[in-house]
Design brief:
Number of helices: 30
Keywords: Actin-binding, Calcium, Coiled coil, Metal-binding, Repeat
Pfam family, one: Spectrin
Structural class: mainly alpha
Shape: elongated
Radius of gyration: 46 Å
Distance between the termini: 42 Å
Number of strands: 4
Family: Belongs to the alpha-actinin family.
Strand content: under 5%
InterPro entries: Actinin_actin-bd_CS, CH_dom, CH_dom_sf, EF-hand-dom_pair, EF-hand_Ca_insen, EF_hand_dom, Spectrin/alpha-actinin, Spectrin_repeat
Protein name: Alpha-actinin-4
Length: 832
């Protein structure tokens, strides 16, 4: 760790030195007011500073006095700096319009508590904080001793030291000479403009040619360096966090690929083996059957044992991977479809099922060959007898002698037909025996099964035809006397069933179109349950609809078949089949619409519930532990009283107590190592806890003028600036809300320590990854491939580019990538 309090940078001034310095400052200020070159330098510096902000809005100024006269660009400058919208400017050319615009700008400045006259405590604190930051950053560099914002910067080495401290590749500091200030200043200004996007605000000749460079001009220039490097530090931290998260995912993906390969190979072997075991194709000779038996025994002795070992290893690998994912706070691994451990177990179970009866089948197959000839002969005998009986029966059944017969003749034909039906029923058993013998021959794989099946099929088809012809003839004989009674009964049945069904459909349509409002997952699940119950009634309702329509169809069929002309509609109801069909179609359309609406609401409620649970679990585990440790550190830091020797003794005692407690910390670190074993990123600027606390305590004591352990908001702002925090009004207000929630106007050392610990601690969450990407993206809602390649190592940059979906928001540009969905997918919170 660099010693920021070494020989180069002592405390600012002693009491006597400060008095002398203030008198000299007043003399210099009087001389500057009379120096025309000073006014020119002021104008040039302020113009460059204004343009560094105005270029963000696509404009600039040339002459401060003229370009700000109408107030338009002055208002635009304030909007860029504050990030807020000012009142709409007046576009007129008259003097009153210009005055009104300038007044609007001045009113906005006054509303922010900015004083346009004199220097207040807040500005002094900010200056002191910026000076302390410069001293810390330049402390290790020879010939640099920053004590102010004028003489200390005149030789240009301090500017070069600031750049080299943060971007050493841009400056060869060892080649700079203290006696060549113009070269040093030009080098720093050109590098800053070219690589750091800091506009050139001063000329080297103006600084070197002045006895005392203008303090405000130097401060303005240095503040640009401060903001540039503060943002770069945040980007580096964000990149490191992303690298750590991506390293975990890349290693896990490698393990997943290994699992997929091993699972695929094992399943492929099972897929090839099962058909062989399931092949029950019989052979025609005993020798061929014996060879099948020997091949099966060779499979059990040689081929299967290695695959049993592969299956056990696959399950071990899967469980190990799932443990790593759980310990690294990642979603569980879901193998490709069909490659789950359960799928492999299922396939293996199917394999063992296939081989289970294979050996027994081989032995039975030998006995089967002996039975086949006997069954085949029995089939041929029974088939011949049946074919003789059926000869001429179809001709008898298809004659239409009833069409011209009288009623008495029809009754006689009915009696004769009943006698034939009795004979037909008696032959049913013979047909079933023939079919059973053919089925048994089939099951025993009789070599001539095709011809047996063909003959059996012909007999069965002929038998079915006889049964159909027999039924048709009876229906033809009975149809005439029953036709009118049947139609009337059908009409009445239609009316009885159509009315309640019609009422049910109307009520269903009203319910399906009813709006719903829910506030939690239980309410939406209740609606889904009710909807599912309704859907379960649809099959029965459809059966009822089909039955009602069948009644009407039967009426039409009877009338058409018998040549009956219906007098009109159903006399018992006005509900038509067409109206039933139309309402039923409407119900069918509304059901999926209702399904979609309910599922969308369920998904939204589940997402909300998941986010709440995730936040609560992490907060309940991490929060109490951190709070307890930070309170202990805060008490030790605040209670440092007495001489330096006493304080050193106290700190050594506290250090010894930490060492004695170290076995517990080692145990905790061991557990943590299991979680982070593949997530280690190298941090070149990592500091120990003791060093970080010492720096925080030193910074706090420097601004704690009264040595009370409490400071006001102005001193606290200067303290934050000295620690590298880039502050605007909104950001400072946010921080004050954290460290001073009661608005007391005072900040304690414990509150400061808690805030710095929270700001610098990494948390492995999707929100922090999103925030890190947002920093790399320059606060945009998307990021580009160019930005990823600039900020991340090549392999991890390409990893992100290959997996990020295109960004489709309203502010999207060509090539924009969606880092938010990518980050949530890393933690299983999306479908990426």
């Amino acid at each position: 760790m660099v010693d920021y309090h070494g020989a180069n940078n002592q405390s600012l001034y002693s009491a006597g030195e400060q008095q002398t310095y203030m008198e000299q400052e007043n003399d210099w200020d009087r001389d500057l007011l009379l120096d025309p070159a000073w006014e020119k330098q002021q104008r040039k510096t302020f113009t460059a500073w204004c343009n560094s902000h105005l270029r963000k809005a696509g404009t600039q100024i040339e002459n401060i006095e003229e370009d700000f006269r109408d107030g338009l660009k002055l208002m635009l400058l304030l909007e860029v700096i504050s990030g807020e919208r000012l009142p709409k400017p007046e576009r007129g050319k008259m003097r009153v319009h210009k005055i009104n615009n300038v007044n609007k700008a001045l009113d906005f400045i006054a509303s922010k508590g900015v004083k346009l006259v004199s220097i207040g405590a807040e500005e002094t604190s900010a200056k002191e904080g910026l000076l302390l930051w410069c001293q810390r950053k330049t402390a290790p560099y020879k010939n640099v001793n920053v004590q102010n914002f004028h003489i200390s910067w005149k030789d240009g080495l301090a500017f070069n030291a600031l750049i080299h401290r943060h971007r050493p590749e841009l400056i060869d500091y060892d080649k700079l000479r203290k006696d060549d200030p113009v070269t040093n200043l030009n080098n720093a200004f050109e590098v800053a403009e070219r690589y750091l996007d800091i506009p050139k605000m001063l000329d080297a000749e103006d600084i070197v040619g002045t006895l005392r460079p203008d303090e405000k001009a130097i401060m303005t220039y240095v503040s640009c360096f401060y903001h540039a490097f503060s943002g770069a530090q945040k980007a580096e931290t964000a990149a490191n966090r992303i690298c750590k998260v991506l390293a975990v995912n890349q290693e896990n993906e490698h393990l997943m690929e290994d699992y997929e390969k091993l699972a695929s190979d094992l399943l492929e072997w099972i897929r090839r083996t099962i058909p062989w075991l399931e092949n029950r194709a019989p052979e025609k000779t005993m020798t061929e059957m014996q060879q099948k038996l020997e091949d099966f025994r060779d499979y059990r002795r040689v081929h299967k044992p290695p695959k049993v070992q592969e299956k056990c290893q696959l399950e071990i690998n899967f469980n190990t991977l799932q443990t790593k994912l759980r310990l690294s706070n990642r979603p569980a691994f879901m193998p490709s479809e069909g490659r789950m451990v359960s799928d492999i177990n299922g396939a293996w179970h199917k394999l063992e099922g296939a081989e289970k009866g294979y050996e027994e089948w081989l032995l039975n197959e030998i006995r089967r060959l002996e039975r086949l000839d006997h069954l085949a002969e029995k089939f041929r005998q029974k088939a011949a007898i049946h074919e003789s009986w059926t000869d001429g029966k179809e001709t008898m059944l298809t004659q239409k002698d009833y069409e011209t017969a009288t009623l008495s003749e029809i009754k006689a034909l009915l009696k004769k037909h009943e006698a034939f039906e009795s004979d037909l029923a008696a032959h049913q058993d013979r047909v079933e025996q023939i079919a059973a013998i053919a089925q048994e021959l089939n099951e025993l794989d009789y070599y001539d099964s095709p011809s047996v099946n063909a003959r059996c099929q012909k007999i069965c088809e002929q038998w079915d035809a006889l049964g159909s012809l027999t039924q048709n003839r009876r229906e033809s004989l009975e149809r005439t006397e029953k036709q009118l009674e049947s139609i009337d009964e059908l009409y009445l049945e239609y009316a009885k069933r159509a009315a309640p069904f019609n009422n049910w459909m109307e009520g269903a349509m009203e319910d399906l179109q009813d709006m719903f409002i829910v506030h939690n997952i239980e309410e939406i699940q209740g609606l889904i349950t009710a909807h599912d119950q309704f859907k379960s009634t649809l099959p029965e309702a459809n059966k009822e609809r089909e039955a009602i329509q069948a009644i009407q169809a039967e009426v039409q069929k009877i009338a058409q078949y018998n040549g009956i002309k219906l007098a009109g509609n159903n006399p018992y109801t006005t509900i038509t089949p067409q109206s039933i069909d139309k309402k039923w179609e409407k119900v069918q359309q509304l059901v999926p619409q209702r399904d979609q609406a309910l599922q969308e609401e369920l998904a939204r409620q589940q997402s909300n519930d998941h986010l709440r649970r995730q936040f609560a679990n992490q907060a309940n585990m991490i929060g109490p532990w951190i709070q307890n440790k930070m309170e202990e550190i805060g008490r030790i830091s605040i209670e440092m009283n007495g001489t330096l020797e006493d304080q050193l003794t106290h700190l050594r005692q506290y250090e010894q107590s930490i060492i004695e407690y170290k076995p517990n910390i080692d145990q905790l670190e061991g557990d943590h190592q299991l979680i982070q074993e593949v997530c280690i990123c190298q941090y070149t600027h990592t500091e120990t806890i003791q060093e970080q606390l010492h720096e925080y305590r030193t910074s706090f004591n420097h601004f704690d003028k009264k040595r009370t352990g409490i400071m006001d908001s102005d001193d606290f702002r200067a303290l934050l600036i000295s620690t590298g925090n880039s502050l605007g009004d909104a950001e400072f207000a946010r921080i004050m809300g954290i460290v001073d929630p009661n608005n007391s106007g005072a900040v304690t050392f414990q509150a400061f320590i808690d805030f710095m610990s929270r700001e610098t601690t990494d948390t492995d969450t999707a929100d922090q990854v999103i925030a890190s990407f947002k920093i790399l993206a320059g606060d945009k809602n998307y990021i580009t491939a160019e930005e990823l390649r600039r900020e991340l190592p090549p392999d991890q940059a390409e990893y992100c580019i290959a997996r990020m979906a295109p960004y489709t928001g309203p502010d999207a540009v060509p090539g924009a990538l969606d880092y938010m969905s990518f980050s949530t997918a890393l933690y299983g919170e999306s479908d990426l």
